[in-house]
Design brief:
Order of helices and strands of chain A: HEEEHEHEHEHHHHHHHEEEHEHH
Helix content of chain A: 40-55%
Strand order of the largest sheet of chain A: 1-2-4-3-5-6-9-10
Strand content of chain B: under 5%
Shape of chain A: globular
Radius of gyration of chain A: 21 Å
Number of strands of chain A: 10
Radius of gyration of chain B: 27 Å
Oligomer: heterodimer
Strand content of chain A: 5-15%
Number of helices of chain A: 14
Order of helices and strands of chain B: HHHHHHHHHH
Number of helices of chain B: 10
Distance between the termini of chain B: 89 Å
């Protein structure tokens, strides 16, 4: 078939190969998040899942994964070979995950206080009761890391150990382009607090940080995957995940822009969430701060600022090679990540 | 293009259309469509480089990259796509404004002017990015005696990102983008005011009524969740006591 194309246009040859590949292998939509799990708690759009343990010696302390509001948490279980969840299950950890769901028009009033002092607090209680422990481990990713820090500072009782993964702390650190763009903006005009924020808008905002690379260039690299069905499926799963972001509750989005991107309140110690004053120095559990050295969304300098707030004897950090997402789903980094996590969680 | 080439091209397009209209999963259709679109882009880029034609449009952000050209998902529509409004509305945002323009107050007209002015400024800056990108690209291209097509595409990317990175962090760009978003935000508020006025004319509930209802629902949800959590906690404690006794 490749010889049936316009001879001086190599891209058309690739298009033919791609169509061949799709015709033979693309009979079913790519499946994501297939590790078996059970929903143990529902609250409005939120679902708290418990993953089915593997037949391995079980650790006592459960670990709760808290993902960001932007994008969906199934990135932690995107496919078996790249599943952080599965890697934790293989080590015998009881794994729980908060899925925030897709906020709709009735949810625009949901605030950071609702997320942190409401949803997370109730999920932590639920996991404690379910597993009959007083303390659990918390693993927060990106914005979920901020939520986990805020929760642990405001409610330190139930957290044994805390892991933050690609989590911004200093929003005014060098190279934080989103912060630069939003710092002086009238947040009330941008984040309409009477409505939700469109997921498409958020997606485009993130893509506009590297517009040429993130909008176009990835398809040039796709050419290399045409004859590799497994990698092509990974690419499609990632595309599906990227285009499956939920809208953001207007109130929480407004507060996040104002308090974090603009006010940098977590780093400057001026943050309050609901009736809780958030001082990172109130965190009394060991913290492992994992950052990615090629993260274009959360620059390493932003993550590393956490060290300034935590007692030296409680704080550890670990660098991963990769970008914001690749750091924890890439097969190249996952072993390093899981080794570090296992060592820390002992 | 010879007759054979023309026929081959037509066959290819027919096969592409057949696949797009087939029953394969939509995820693959989207990917195929993006792949074909990007292929056209790069093919045209290479042809223009070979023909020594103007390249500036290849770095034109609003028209080629994620703004106006990604299946209608442009910034302006998405800004107004709140609570899925645009998904359900067949009317483009420009039409929403233009059809009711007479009704707009002077204030709204002023906001529209600010929006156009901010858009113009952003267009100028995007023009600067294109210009800078061409310079970067020429530098890279001239340093290489016989670059392959793959290398030329890489140069395109490097030139674009370098130019964008330098200009998008300058105060002028940051201010222009801020003004653009703020003017869009003001238009959105005007839009809401207009619909508020319109809905009152046809006897629909006011937005305040909707806010009150949503707030009550929100409070009720939180109250119920707290009640349920407390009850579960008490039940759990009782179960634990019973276990100890037995």
């Amino acid at each position: 078939l490749a010889t049936n194309t316009v001879s001086n246009d190599p891209w058309q040859d690739d298009l033919v190969l791609f169509m061949d590949s799709i015709e033979t292998s693309a009979q079913h939509p790519p499946v994501v998040g297939i590790t078996p799990k059970t929903c143990i708690y529902k609250e409005n759009k939120l679902r708290l899942f418990r993953y089915q343990p593997l037949k391995t010696k079980q650790k006592r302390t459960p670990i709760l994964l808290v993902y960001a509001l932007v994008n969906r948490p199934y990135i932690t279980d995107i496919e078996p070979d790249r599943s952080l969840v599965l890697k934790l299950l293989e080590q015998g950890y009881p794994v729980y995950l908060i899925d925030w769901g897709y906020p709709n028009a009735s949810d625009y009033l949901t605030s950071l206080n609702d997320y942190i002092n409401g949803y997370i607090r109730r999920c932590v209680s639920r996991v404690c009761r379910e597993t009959n422990v007083n303390k659990i481990d918390l693993l927060g990713i990106c914005q979920g890391g901020i939520f986990s820090l805020c929760y642990s500072a405001a409610h330190p009782t139930h957290i044994r150990k805390l892991i933050t993964l690609v989590t911004p702390i200093d929003f005014h650190s060098e190279g934080n382009i989103l912060s630069l763009w939003t710092r002086n903006i009238d947040a009330r005009l941008i984040c309409n607090t009477k409505k939700n924020i469109s997921a498409k808008l958020i997606n485009q905002l993130f893509k506009s940080i590297k517009p040429y690379q993130l909008n176009r260039d990835k398809y040039r690299h796709l050419k290399k995957l045409i004859n590799k069905p497994a990698q092509l499926e990974t690419f499609i799963r990632m595309e599906q995940w990227l285009n499956d972001g939920p809208d953001l509750a207007g109130t929480a989005a407004f507060e996040f822009v104002q308090k974090f991107y603009q006010g940098n309140e977590l780093h400057t110690g001026q943050l309050s969430i609901g009736s809780h004053s958030i001082d990172l120095k109130h965190i009394k559990c060991p913290i492992l701060n994992i950052y990615a050295n090629n993260d274009h969304i959360v620059p390493p300098s932003s993550s590393l600022a956490l060290k300034k707030h935590i007692s030296q004897n409680l704080y550890q950090e670990h660098e991963l090679n990769g970008g914001h997402i690749g750091a924890f789903i890439s097969s190249n980094t996952q072993q390093s990540l899981i080794d570090k996590l296992t060592k820390f969680l002992k | 293009m010879s007759n054979n080439d023309h026929q081959a091209n037509q066959d290819l397009m027919e096969r592409f259309s057949a696949l797009i209209n087939s029953s394969i999963p939509k995820e693959y259709k989207q990917l195929l469509s993006n792949f074909q679109e990007q292929g056209n882009f790069y093919t045209q880029l290479i042809q223009n480089i070979e023909g020594k034609k103007d390249l500036s449009s290849f770095w034109d952000i609003p028209n080629t990259l994620g703004f106006a050209n990604v299946k209608g998902d442009d910034w302006f529509t998405n800004f107004f796509d709140i609570n899925g409004y645009s998904t359900h509305s067949k009317q483009h945002i420009e039409n929403q404004f233009s059809s009711f323009q007479k009704e707009f107050s002077d204030h709204s007209q002023q906001n529209l002017k600010q929006f156009h002015s901010a858009l113009q400024k952003m267009s100028e800056l995007h023009g600067q990015i294109s210009q800078r990108a061409i310079e970067e690209f020429n530098k890279l291209n001239h340093s290489d005696s016989a670059p392959s097509n793959e290398t030329l595409c890489q140069y395109w990317l490097n030139a674009g990102e370098t130019a964008f990175n330098s200009i998008s962090q300058q105060p002028e760009y940051v201010t222009a983008q801020r003004q653009l978003f703020e003017s869009l935000g003001k238009l959105q508020i005007d839009n809401e005011s207009f619909y508020e006025h319109f809905s009152s004319l046809v006897g629909m509930p006011s937005s305040q009524t909707q806010v009150d209802l949503t707030k009550a629902l929100h409070d009720l949800r939180v109250e119920f969740a707290e009640y349920r959590d407390r009850t579960d906690e008490q039940l759990h404690a009782l179960q634990q006591q019973l276990k100890k006794r037995s």
